[in-house]
Design goal:
single chain; 313 residues; alpha/beta; seven-stranded mixed sheet; five-stranded parallel sheet
Length: 313
């Protein structure tokens, strides 16, 4: 049994930033980063050009490696393991990992993130960062004067499509139903955009390209007929799923599936359990906002531990 002041579950910008702040506060945190997913979604991202401090941009894995090294410099311990059980007991939370390590922690920071939903097609993963993306804010700039497609029919898809018309010469929105799910106001704005076209009752059947995306095969959901769509960019906007399986039965989950916290803080409904990053944020989902959220969680955990010490004194 290993006793810790703070255990951080998950890595990525939120987890590593929380580790930096907690380590600098002399809390000696351990980061259970994941055996496969260490570093989070940015490990699958190529150029990151909107993270402050990198005027020439930075590769996603390089940014995560720098954050990890910075956390370790101040005394954080990073463990490449997976949490299989979290037992919530204020003052002595219990954690079990896949490799059989047992921790008790006075404070736990949940930075488990979320995962973009995928189409599940061959080539989708292979061309990630080479024409296929899940984030218009992150990657739209790279598609100046190109023809691209967006898949989805909700508010997020419409928002991404209209945002991308700032850069692309043409954006085609592909939705498998005749009716969009987005609000009427969002639909009206999108239909008034001259660069945006709609391909309804349609779905992406194939993604083409070897080193880069070259086009799509689109299938009609009404007739089954297929056609080719020559695009160099594909943005998948069919939602995301927060990674809450570990604690969804013990903590309050909002109606949208994301973990609930108290206002602008990182406090969950269980004392000593804090949360940061995309697991609590369905809106912004940026590396910089996740990093800021990690700072908040570490600061809240530090104050919580100080209050425990005061009570014990």
């Amino acid at each position: 049994m290993t006793e810790r002041h703070v255990v951080i579950i998950g890595s990525g910008p939120a987890g590593y930033t929380a580790a930096i702040y907690a380590a600098r506060a002399n809390l000696q945190p351990v980061v259970i980063a994941g055996s496969v997913t260490a570093g989070g979604e940015l490990m699958n991202t190529t150029d990151v050009e909107n993270f402050p401090g990198f005027p020439e941009g930075v590769q996603g894995p390089d940014l995560m490696e720098s954050m990890r090294a910075q956390a370790e410099r101040f005394g954080a311990e990073v463990v490449y393991d997976d949490v299989t059980e979290l037992r919530m007991n204020p003052g002595a939370h219990g954690i079990t990992t896949a490799l059989g390590t047992e921790y008790t922690a006075r404070a736990v920071i949940l930075a488990t993130g979320s995962a973009y939903r995928e189409l599940g097609l061959p080539n989708e993963k292979a061309l990630s960062g080479h024409g296929v993306s899940w984030c218009a804010t992150c990657d739209g700039f790279f598609f100046k004067d190109q023809e691209i497609a967006v898949v989805g029919g909700g508010d997020s898809a419409i928002e991404e499509a209209t945002f991308l018309t700032r850069f692309a010469s043409k954006v085609t929105l592909i939705h498998r139903r005749q009716e969009l799910r987005a609000s009427q106001a969002m639909q009206d704005r999108a239909k008034a955009d001259p660069k945006l076209e709609f391909l309804l009752d349609s779905e992406v059947a194939e993604i083409h390209g070897e080193d880069a995306l070259t086009g799509l095969t689109v299938r009609s959901t009404a007739t089954g007929e297929t056609s080719e769509l020559p695009v160099t960019g594909l943005f998948v906007a069919i939602g995301s799923d927060p990674r809450t399986e570990l604690f969804k039965d013990a903590l309050e989950i909002r109606p949208d599936g994301y973990l609930a916290v108290d206002g602008r803080s990182s406090r969950t409904t269980v004392p000593g359990i804090f949360a940061a990053g995309d697991v609590i944020d369905p809106i912004y989902r940026q590396a910089i906002t996740a990093a800021g959220s990690g700072c908040v969680a570490a600061t809240d955990a530090e104050h919580y531990l100080a209050s425990l010490n005061d009570k014990e004194s």
